[in-house]
Amino acid sequence: MAPYDPQVVAPFFPALSANGDRLYLDSAATTLRLRCAMERMGKFYGESSNVHRGLYRLSEAATEAYENARSLVGKYIGAETSDEVIFVRGTTEAINLVAHSWRRTFPKRGDRIMVTVMEHHSNFLPWQLAADEIGADFDVCGILENGELDMDDFRKKLSPRTRMVAVAHVSNTLGTINPIEEIVRLAHGVGALVLVDGAKQSDAGPIDVAKLGCDFYAFSGHKMFAGTGIGILWGRKNVLEAMEPFQLGGGMVERFSGNNSQWQQLPAKFEAGTPNVGGALGLAAAVEFLMDFPWEDQFNYFLSIREYFERTICEFDGLRILGNPALKVGVFSLVSDRFHAHDIATALATRNVCVRAGTHCAQPLCKKLAVPASLRVSFSIYNSIGDAQRFIEELHWALEFLNLRMAS
User: Fold this and answer.
1) Given a cut of 60, is residue 130 above it in pLDDT?
2) 33 in Cβ contact with 53 (< 8 Å)
3) Are 289 and 8 in contact (CB under 8 A)?
4) Average predicted confidence (pLDDT) for the chain
5) Which CATH number fits domain 6-25+294-407: 3.40.720.10, 2.60.120.650, 3.40.50.720, 3.90.1150.10?
6) List of residues 6+ apart from 112 with CB closer than 8 A
7) Does the annotation mark 141 as catalytic?
8) Residue 2 confidence class, pLDDT cut points 50, 70, 90
9) Cis ω on the peptide bond leading into residue 267 (within 30° of 0)?
10) Which among 141, 214, 361, 366 is annotated as catalytic?
11) What whole-number distance in Å separates Cα of residue 169 and Cα of residue 197?
12) Gap between the Cα atoms of 383 and 217, Å rounded
C-alpha cells in the first residue's frame, strides 16, 4: 500500500488552488471546505425548498435528503439510531443546549459539575453558569506539565455528587487527545453523565460514540470540511427524552395547549424553527468523503510531521511549544520569549502564511500556563511535510524581521 500523500487529497479542496502561494495552517479554527460539500449545499439552495410538512415534491425531496443526512451522520459516529442526532448551529449551541436543558431536568443544589482547565470557553462557561444557577459546586480538573490531563486530579475531584463531566476530546490549544474511555468509565462509576466536545477531533480521525461510551458528543461542520452554521449534538436517547427542550417554536410541538403543550418526539423536540438544511446536506457530503478516508495512514503521516516540527522548533532560541503529550493531533502552540504572538502572526501574514494568535478561547488554560497568548499552528489532512518545512523557513524570516525592527 502506498504511503499517505496529502497531494492526492488537495484537489478536493478548492481553496488550496485559489491562491497558489497561500500556506493554510489554521485548521483548528476552521478547516478548508470540501468541493463536494459546497456543491451539495449549492444544489439545495438552487433547486429545493424547506423541509417537513410540505405536501409538494420540492418539500418532500428536501425532507428526504435532510433525514438521510441525519442517518448518514448517525452511522458515521456509531449512533444506535438517527433519532439521537440533533442538528444544531455548531458545537457551541450543542453544549449550551445540553447545559440549559439538563440543568432544568436533573441536577440539584449541592451536586457537582466538572470540566477541565484545557476546555474551550464553549465547554467551560455554560457549565460555570449552570453550576452558579443551580447552586452546584464547580470543579476544574488540572493538567500535567506535558499538557496531558491530570487523571490523579480527576479521580480526586470526582465524587458521588458529580452529576456532569464536560471534557474536550482534543485540546484546541495543545492538541492533546484525552483518554475519553477512561474518563467515561470513572464518571459512570459515580453516576455522572459525560459530555464530549469533539470539535477538534472531527478533522483528525473517526468518531465512535458507542466505543467512547459517553452520553453526549458535539462537533461543528466548519471544523469537519463542511460549511459554517451547522453541527450536531449526539445524545443517548433515554437521556434526551428525559430533558426539556432548549428552544421553543415551530416544528417541535406535537399538541398545543393553553396550559400544557406536548413536545414532538426526538429529534424534532430539539430542532425548533427552520433548520439549516443546506448545511446539513453539506455536512453529509463531507461525512461521505470521510467514511472511506485512510485515517490510520494519515495519522502515521502526521507523526512524521510532528517529529520534524518539534525537532526544528527546538532549534530556535527563545521559542517553545506548549505541552508535549504522548497522543496529540496536528496542533502546536508556540510561545516566544521575545515577541508577542500577534506580532509574529502579523509578520507571517505578510508572507501569506495563515496561523492563529491569541488565547484561542482557552483563557483558563493560558492562565494556568502563565502565557498571555500563543502562536497556534494547526495541520490537517491536506497539509504536507513540505508545508511544515515552508512554515519553518517563514518563521525564521519573521523572527529576523522582528529583530531588525526592534534594533532600529
Assistant:
1) yes
2) no
3) no
4) 96
5) 3.90.1150.10
6) 136, 137, 138, 139, 159, 161, 162, 163
7) no
8) low
9) yes
10) 361
11) 6
12) 27
